[in-house]
Amino acid sequence: MKQSKKRMMTAAAVTAAVAASILGAAGCGAAGASTTGAVSVPDTIRVENVEGAGNTIAVTGQEEVKVVPDMAQIEYAVYTQADAADACQSENAENLNRTIETLKGLGVEETSIQTSAYGLNPIYDWNSGTQNITGYEMTTRITVSDIPIDQAGSILSESVIAGVNQIDTVSYFSSNYDASYQEALKGAIAVAQAKAQAIAEASGKSVVGIVNVEEYGYNPEVRYSNYSGSGARAVEETAAAAMDMGVMPGQVSVEAQVNVEFAIE
């Protein structure tokens, strides 16, 4: 009780001193011949008691949740070569259209099929010393998304038969990612709280509440786990590989990290 009165008296004394200083400055200004305006005195002067500032602990918590993916995304391409540019383009378009029709026949929606990265380029004979054009090559990339995991293998195989001859990546993800991330967040908070409690107890104090929480690491892209193909190969080789490939998605790691500031006493 005495300490409380002492702090109140100190605050009152500081308030009086500040007010007297401002009023004194106003009086001096009024007496001076060069003064052109009145000094504004605030209605209220706040003196904050900062005693106890720093009675906090800031710790980091991280948690990982494993989830079995149920969806897939495939990125592959149709690659063609020919002596003439128009023949190369025509063959590429034919294989591309056949692939798209195959995908539709397997139940893939048009909105899940995206073609991109069209490229028609000359092929040079760099050994001749004259940079003669010996032919043309063209690549059209296709992304197929929203594939149920149990259909990924057949879609790969049938696409290769239809004309795909370059497999880039097969990505796996979970449609329950958000729920898994929230679970990881709760775990990260629990880890942070346990660390803060241990530090507080070692200091002879205890945790009394959370002052601030900062979330880091939310990145839906971590849902993807990629298989990278070996690039363009002959159609026969790629078809054999795809037919023999078993789609094994394994598990996807969902991670959450938080910085938490706890109040202690």
Labels describing this entry:
37% helix; five-stranded antiparallel beta sheet; alpha+beta; three-stranded antiparallel beta sheet; elongated; 265 residues; disordered N terminus
| Unreliable stretches | 1-53, 224-236, 238-244
Shape: elongated
The separation of the N and C termini measures: 19 Å
Largest sheet: 5 strands, antiparallel
Mean pLDDT: 76
Structural class comes to: alpha+beta
In N-to-C order, the SSE pattern is HEEHEEHEHEEHE
Could you explain how this protein is built, in words?
This is SIMPL domain-containing protein. Helix content is 37%, strand content 34%. The chain has helices at residues 2-31, 85-105, 152-162, 177-202, 235-244, and strands at residues 56-67, 71-82, 113-125, 132-148, 166-173, 207-216, 225-228, 252-264. α2 (85-105) runs antiparallel to α3 and α3 (152-162) packs antiparallel against α5 (235-244). The protein is elongated.
Short description:
The chain has 265 residues and is of the alpha+beta class. It has helices spanning 2-31, 85-105, 152-162, 177-202, 235-244; strands at 56-67, 71-82, 113-125, 132-148, 166-173, 207-216, 225-228, 252-264.
